[in-house]
Write a structure and sequence with these properties.
It comes from Paenibacillus oryzisoli. InterPro entries: Bact_solute-bd_prot1, SBP. This is ABC transporter substrate-binding protein. The protein has 545 residues and is of the alpha+beta class. It has two domains: 227 residues, 3-Layer(aba) Sandwich (D-Maltodextrin-Binding Protein, domain 2); 240 residues, D-Maltodextrin-Binding Protein, domain 2 (3-Layer(aba) Sandwich), CATH 3.40.190.10. 41% of the residues lie in helices and 10% in strands. A five-stranded mixed β-sheet has the order 2-1-3-10-4, covered by helices on one side. A three-stranded antiparallel β-sheet has the order 8-5-9. Helix 13 packs parallel to helix 22, helix 15 runs antiparallel to helix 20 and helix 22 packs across helix 24.
Length: 545
């Protein structure tokens, strides 16, 4: 079967890809030899040696990738932005970019893969079988000739990435399959960029009510009641809902469980939503909902605008949100009320002084925005050389800070954003930065990069990272085998849908909590044990890499 026919044949399968919320919200084989992995035939060999820029080439690459929403307010295409133009100048490579519409990435990705016309490079989630957008994960995508194995290409044409992988064995372990095949260029987070979401509250309200920042579930209850009764907050606690309540297991984690797959203290994979203690977490959330403390419309808050509205209209005084949002909300809030202040809070526990069981913590490899080379690309070598620029010193500076002298300057060797970026009278900091850098994508993140504009943001990471998430969060880049992935696709979507349907009903009281045992039995009958076993095998193989 041709690669085009195979892509058509998987178009239906794409609709049952394992939901990322199951696995992500949720081992010593060497790389294959060149004869095993193969590589693509390049239409034209660029004249520059690997690692040397600009490359002398007349070829134009095509790249399909998501565009930062902050950039679209200024430029509709990355290629038109100062960043895109500088990248072309530095690398010598012209690139024609195509961007899916905001909120339609998954649907348009599916259509792209099922088409007869793939671009040279595709930036999307090429991670493990549990989170990958492609059914069956990267091994299946390579087998279907949708993307290329990159072992030979990295070895010959990507000296910057190759050096990083040689020097960082843990990273090297993350970005390949169990059989040692590299499948994408990775987004690499710096060590100080792994924690960026957590609980936060209106500090000015706390001060007015003479209440401390809450650390336990009981203290949170006291604060939320005060926000409702004394500040008139109709949704004292709100949060964005993206396939599930996006609170990164805040409150739920206090009960030593998670609203996803997690790793227990013995290193075993568990599915949190059927834990006995998950019933206690649901009971808490239902109590808060029934008393009007949890946003009654939480399941409708499917985009960030709802969260913005609640917090900035004084309807809400607490949420779980991104570090970057703290700055955005404080900028806007202070224009209306100079006293407006948000403060980070620890992930709550049941007892004072306990360490939180789990919270938000990513890994240095973020598979959600990794770049793969299409299986039928005629410019594979050029594509790899172009992508490798982001992992060298000059490329990393461009991707992280933009254009020296324009978007940043060096102060005793330390890059700092210029007033042009930080003090634009019309555009926000994020809108300005998105024009000159690439906020997300395959490049080497720099620990010196910071978008913080308030002390509260600087404090937040140190507070939010005080959890045992490093022990309990499931890696999103495990690679189940093709057969395992088929089993996951068959079972997981239905389980995830049912779990979330019941989660909402339990919290809202549409199903009594004493039906929890029936719900657990139903999930068991749907095959959750098989799914858990697959993830356990994949985790064991990963640990042995």
């Amino acid at each position: 079967m041709s690669s085009r026919s195979k892509r058509k044949s998987i178009s239906l399968a794409l609709s049952v890809v394992v939901a990322s919320s199951m696995f992500a919200a949720c081992s010593n084989e060497s790389a294959k030899s060149s004869s095993e992995t193969g590589s693509a035939t390049t239409k034209a060999t660029p004249t520059a040696s690997a690692g040397q820029y600009p490359i002398a080439t007349q070829e134009t690459l095509t790249s399909w990738e998501q565009i930062n929403p902050n950039l679209t307010t200024v430029f509709p295409n990355i290629g038109d932005s100062p960043f895109g133009k500088q990248l072309e100048s530095d690398t010598g490579v012209k690139v024609k970019y195509t961007h899916p519409a905001d909120g339609q990435s998954k649907e348009q990705f599916n259509l792209l893969i099922a088409s007869n016309n793939l671009p040279d490079v595709i930036e999307y989630n090429w991670g493990g079988g549990g989170t990958a957008a492609y059914p069956g994960g990267p091994e299946k995508a390579i087998a279907d000739k949708v993307i290329l194995p990159l072992n030979d290409l990295i070895d010959k044409s990507a000296p910057n990435l190759k050096k990083l992988l040689q020097n960082d064995k843990e990273l090297d372990k993350m970005i390949k399959t169990d059989n040692g095949t590299y499948y994408a260029f990775p987004m690499i987070r710096p060590d100080n960029g792994l924690v960026f979401r957590g609980p936060m509250l209106r500090k000015d309200w706390l001060d007015e009510l003479n209440l401390p920042v809450p650390t336990t579930i009981d203290e949170w209850y006291t604060v939320l009641k005060a926000f409702k009764e004394k500040k008139g907050a109709s949704a004292a606690l709100t949060a964005q809902y993206s396939n599930e309540l996006n609170i990164q297991d805040a409150f739920i984690g206090a009960y030593q469980t998670a609203n996803r797959f997690y790793i227990d203290n013995q290193g075993k994979v568990k599915y949190g939503p059927i834990d006995p203690q998950f019933k206690d977490a649901l009971t808490l959330l239902h109590k808060w909902y029934a008393e009007g403390l949890l946003d009654k419309d939480f399941a409708l808050n499917t985009d960030s605008k709802s969260q913005d509205t609640r917090l900035l209209s004084d309807e809400s005084g607490a949420t779980v949100g991104l570090l970057s949002a703290v700055g955005k909300w404080m900028d806007t809030g202070k224009k209306k009320n100079p006293k407006f202040q948000l403060v980070p809070a620890p992930y709550p526990t049941l007892k004072k002084g306990e360490r939180a069981f789990i919270g938000q913590r990513d890994f240095k490899y973020n598979p959600a925005v990794s770049k793969a080379v299409a299986g039928d690309s005629k410019h594979a070598e050029l594509a790899v050389k172009w992508m490798d620029y982001a992992f060298g010193e000059k490329g990393s500076m461009l991707f992280n800070f933009g254009i020296v002298g324009e978007s940043y300057t060096l102060d005793n060797g330390v890059p700092k954003f210029t007033d042009k970026i930080t003090k634009d009278p019309k555009l926000s900091l994020q809108q300005m930065i998105s024009q000159y850098t690439k906020p997300n994508g395959p490049f080497l993140g720099d620990s010196r990069k910071s978008f913080n504009t308030y002390k509260e943001q600087d404090d937040a990471v140190g507070i939010w990272e005080q959890t045992d998430a490093v022990k309990h969060v499931m890696p999103p880049f495990l690679t189940p085998t093709t057969e395992e992935s088929k089993e996951l696709a068959k079972l997981s979507t239905a389980i995830t849908s049912y779990k979330e349907e019941m989660f909402v009903k339990f919290v809202m009281g549409k199903e009594p909590i004493d039906k929890f045992d029936d719900y657990v039995k139903r999930i068991n009958d749907m095959g959750i044990d098989k799914v858990t076993q697959i993830y356990q095998k994949a985790l064991d193989r990963y640990n042995k890499r």
